[in-house]
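Long-time lurker, first post.

We've been arguing in lab meeting about whether flavin-adenine dinucleotide would sit comfortably in this protein at all. Half the group thinks yes, half thinks no, and nobody has a model to point at. So I'm putting the question to the forum: if I give you the sequence and the SMILES, can you give me back a predicted structure of the complex? Inputs are below. Any interpretation is welcome too.
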Amino acid sequence: MQQKISLKLSPSESADDAAIRKKIASSAAKKLTDITGYVPLKKSIDARGKNIYINLTVNAFIREPLQPVNVKHFTFKNVTDSDQKVVIIGAGPTGLFAALQLLEKGIQPIILERGKDVRSRRRDLAVLNKEGIVNSESNYCFGEGGAGTYSDGKLYTRSSKRGDIERILQLFVFFGAPENILYDAHPHIGTNKLPHIITAMRKAITDHGGKFLFEKKVTDFIIEKDHIKEVITADGDSFSGDAYILATGHSARDIFELLHSKKILIEAKPFALGVRIEHPQTLIDGIQYHATERDEYLPPASYSLVQQVEGRGVFSFCMCPGGIIAPAATSPGELVVNGWSPSKRNNPFANSGMVVEVQQADALKSLQGSKGSTVQKFKSSLKADELAKDPLLFLKFQQMVEKAAFEAGGGDFVAPAQRMQDFINRKTSASLPKNSYLPGLKSTDLTTVLPPFIYDTLAGGFKAFGKKLRGYLTNEAVVVATESRTSSPVRIPRNENLEHPQVSNLYPSGEGAGYAGGIVSAAMDGERVANTICARLNKK
Ligand SMILES: Cc1cc2nc3c(=O)[nH]c(=O)nc-3n(C[C@H](O)[C@H](O)[C@H](O)COP(=O)(O)OP(=O)(O)OC[C@H]3O[C@@H](n4cnc5c(N)ncnc54)[C@H](O)[C@@H]3O)c2cc1C
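Top reply:
Settle the argument with this. Predicted structure of the protein with flavin-adenine dinucleotide, as tokens:
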């Protein structure tokens, strides 16, 4: 027989197969020899009390042979001779999962990606980190696998209504991700493993007759009678298909500008902007696990924080335990930070984004200028009423802060930074702590970089978080500007058929179009759009 059993284990028991079997036997009131095996279904950490427990739910096999984890197998059709083609612009999670879905249904995907393959991309990241030179086509946001490739690979999402999360995780496992992502409460893959998974996805796509083209940056849409006839790439090539999935991510500013210049409707979308915070990992472990030293069977600790400060939300974002702060800009002269971590999360620092909601009035006021600050230098020349109508309002705001951060750092992607306690005391730090950011940090008064409403809300948030997590508000932590690519500052509208309301075969999808936030939700939106196209092309 099989029985679903929930166990409460100590950290060391959770890593000990014999101890787990013993607990299963005791819980099921069976002999130890009756337990033939078990399959984990859900695993989470309960660190609320003094003693820390691992909650593990398993499917136990009792006096019957163990059936291994339910890893699904996927089959794809060979589409080499398909007469139906879909052009996918962008090879991030949205584009990749859309392509796999099309292959399952027998439609040929043609992926056009502006960046390079994962391996070549790695070299450009090394140049960015070591020499402070960004390649505008190949960086932490652009290239095979999109922004998710050199990330932490957290696969946790709250968007359960938007699609089949289980299917996305199963596909990741099918392409080489560890099986524990199927049952961990907060699954993550790690930067070292993601590139192999992305390469395996590409191989499946090309092995089955899909096309995958690198260094093909889409620069124009040729539209006839509210229909895309073809897309043009920077090298002068053109591509056509039955439908076009626009999956270019939140950093493809040139695509937003292109659509706007062609009078194809886009809308300003509120987003969040702030900083990245880094603490020593031991400090976060100590706070979360209530001990001076982390139990060797527990993973590096994380946190998730949210607070209202004078009616404005401030929250932690993309926490990377044992991680690295990375320069995630896509253009020279603009500074953006983000975070990643390897699968073992074994770096000595814990970083997370700490961001503030930005609404229209905030962006308008900031773009009109805040006196005496670096950020003021990059204010908009547009009048308030023009800005209010501008669909690129939030993009302009985002760019303004990124430019101010770059200038304050002094170039080469050196980032302006302040110790956390100094930040709330508005004091320039005399020195900065050791940190993971390779291009380097420069001690800076961040009031000159961040618009006042961002600075003040963050300061209020840090004080509140210091009360929630004793020891969090400390000068051992460093505040780095600026975390600005949290989600898209633009929405590309779509109708109930998921098409653009003005261009009937254009399907905006994923994070850049404003329909996803994170790897899994982007993948689900890519699948959803691909399924809709398949239905339209009668491939149910
Ligand atoms: C450093 C970092 C860490 C992150 N960590 C996590 C994490 O742990 N978990 C998580 O869920 N999310 C994380 N994210 C966010 C996540 O990566 C994104 O939410 C996700 O990748 C969005 O998927 P997408 O396919 O919609 O867009 P993207 O991944 O942005 O992909 C868009 C693709 O389109 C290409 N493109 C753009 N313009 C053009 C053009 N004109 N022509 C052709 N191609 C074009 C780009 O090169 C890119 O490959 C992280 C992001 C970064 C930068």
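For your lab meeting: The two ends are 38 Å apart (CA to CA). Residues 519-536 form the longest helix (18 residues). Whichever side wins, do check it experimentally.
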